Amino acid sequence: MSGIWQLEVTGDFSSAHALRNYQGKCERPHGHNFAVAVCVAGSRLDEKTEILIDFKILRRMLKDTLDELDHKMLNDDAPFDRINPSSENLARHIWRQMKLKLEDSPAAGTVQMVSVKVSEKPGQSASYME
User: Which residues have CB under 8 Å from 41's CB, separation 6+?
Assistant: First the structure.
């Protein structure tokens, strides 16, 4: 019987957004220091290193993804110029970007995305997985 390993890396970014059709004060521009946790999984370790994927590689992928969101008005840039920049949509967007980066990494085919969790503040978060 073979097992599955899950790895998680975390990061953060600061951005502003305005929730369209919210009908409350969050419909006005406001900012958050978002925290993000990315979980990946795989069932086969690298033969030489006996690791699933280097944490350094995962952290770099996450940093590159979050740098695209950092210190922006999210509503101004795609895809959030069309969809609400909610924590739910941010989690899905980050998941998709990380999936693309994994597919172009040395771990392609052996490491899969599991989930992305986005927190606007402690005690409230949105997770996305496929």
Answer: 4, 5, 6, 7, 52, 111, 112, 114
